[in-house]
Amino acid sequence: MTRRIIRRQSPIHGNGVFAAREIPKGARVIEYRGRRLTHAEADDRFGNDTDTGHTFLFTLNEKYLIDGGDGGNVARWINHSCAPNCQAWIVEHASGDPRKDRVVIESRRRIRAGEELTYDYGIVLEERQTAQLKKIWACHCGAPKCSGTLLKPKKVPRK
Question: Which whole-number Å values give the CA distances from 141 to 6, 13, 82, 107, 150, in the listed order?
Fold first, then answer.
C-alpha cells in the first residue's frame, strides 16, 4: 500500500505535505506530534519570538502546547491556508489529563492525489497586530479570499 502523505517543496512556503493518494472527506490524516511543553517552558525557550513568522508550536490546551520542532513528525510541515482542505482538532484524553491531549489533522473535503494539505493556523498574538507583524506573518496560500496574514484578531470578551 502506498503512503497516504508525503513531504516535498511547497509553492506556499518551504516544505509542504501532499496527498500521495486520494484522501476521502472526514479522514483522520495524521496526528501532530512533538515534545509537550507548558506555556511557561515555551516562553522560557522561545521568549516572545513573534518576529520570525515561523513556528512549530501548536497550542494543545490552557496548560500545554506541542513543539513539533522537537521530536515532531511530518505534520509540522503542513502549511496554512485561508481556504484549507484540512482541519486541526484537539482530542481531549478520556482521563482528563491535559498532558495526554492530542492534535489530529482531518480532511474537510475529498483531497486529490498530489494536492497540498493545508489548515488554518488561527494564530492569535498577545501584542497589537501592527502592519509589520502582519507582514512578518504574511500568508502566501493564493486562495481567492486570502486574508494576507496568518494572524487572527484577538477575541474581545463580551460584556
Answer: 19, 8, 7, 17, 10
